[in-house]
Amino acid sequence: MLYLLGVVAFALAILVSVSLHEAGHMITAKRFGMKVTRYFVGFGPTVWSFRRGETEYGLKAIPLGGFCKIVGMTPQDDDVDPADEPRAMWRFPLWKRTVVMSAGSIAHFLLAIVTLWIAAIFMGLPNPDYPTNQAEIRSEPARIELAPCVVRENPPTRACRSGDPASPAAQASLRDGDVITAIGSTPVANWGQMLDAVRATKPGPIPVSYVRDGATHTAQVDLAEVQRPPQDRADGPVGPVSALGVGLGTPPTITYGPVAAFGATADFTGDMAVNTVKALQRIPQKVPALWAAITGEERDVDTPISVVGASRLGGEAVQHGLWEVFVLLFISLNFFIGVFNLLPLLPMDGGHIAIAWFERARSWLFARLGRPDPGRVDYFKLMPLTYALILIGGAFTLLTITADVVNPITLIQR
Question: Which residues cross the membrane (predicted)?
Answer without folding.
Answer: 99-125, 322-343, 385-406
